Amino acid sequence: MKQKIWIVEDDKEILELLEFIAESNGYDVFGSRDLEGANRLLEDAKTNSNLIPSLLISDYHLINGNTEQWLIKVRKNFPELRIVCCSGGILLVDSLENIKKHAIEFHEKPMTLSEILKILKNKSV
Q1: Is residue 83, in this structure, part of any structural domain at all?
Q2: Domain with 112 in it
Q3: Which residue intervals of 48-86 are DSSP H helices?
Q4: Domain-located, residue 95
Q5: 48-101: per-residue pLDDT in tens?
């Protein structure tokens, strides 16, 4: 059975590229371009354990909601889930510290193919 991954990224091209890389590395991929879709992934997984991913990669700056609070909500529902947050924008120190406090990894964009593959293979970047 393939491992599942959620990818939440508002940039269509980046989302498609990440989905392609993850699928090429054996993942079952569930993607969303906004927090509304990401919330649906979360709610579906809460009622169907077959949909719980082994990895979540999420952009930090998403539209229609508070990404940081959503990531913390995911962490509370799935404490064992590996969560990777990435951003090409500026993060406030408080936000970055809060993300790390909730055992969420942070990576700056742009990420290289090598970095993405290390994340998918559960290795330190």
Answers
A1: yes
A2: 4-120
A3: 67-77
A4: yes
A5: 999 999 999 999 988 888 898 999 999 999 999 999 999 887 777 778 887 888
